[in-house]
Amino acid sequence: MIKDATRERLLTVAESLLLETGYDDVSVRSINTAAGMNPAAVHYHFGSKDGLVGALLEARLAPHWADRLATVSERRARGWTPTVAELVDVVVTPLLDLSAESLGRLHLHLLARLFLGRQQVEWSSRWFSLDPWIELLRAARPDLSAGEAARRWVLAFDLVLQTVGAPLATTLPKEKISGTTLRAFVTAGLDAA
Known about the structure:
single chain, mainly alpha
């Protein structure tokens, strides 16, 4: 379990540095130094800075969706058909909740940078891939092909992450984002005829 403790130490130190100075000003070297680790520790445990950020996001964000996604999966197993608005709520509500605190805004900013930059990150959670979302959208809208459902989700996630994550900002947003218009717009896009 030393490996797990080392990984968590690197994640915690990186998170603190990223919150303090921002993505562009934090180097792999600075993370290793601040963690008191070997200069190659980040590369050994995560492969790259983006790999470390992906692991950080998955560790910190997955719990925000776990209960909602478990409920959706259980209801689907019992034959429930979601509405598009319900699916949008499952995606957007945790993101809006995260925007209420500075650490959450950091996570959203980093997620937006990775997703919108189309960075190739290895995710271990199935909810960080498009496949389950495609399946859920097609349950709500059986007339959509898998390809069309995927394209709609990519556009929806692009819009949502651009809005809540401010990927090009040099400083993090200071306030929580209101979700009424965002939810309505994303729902309309996913549910368009």
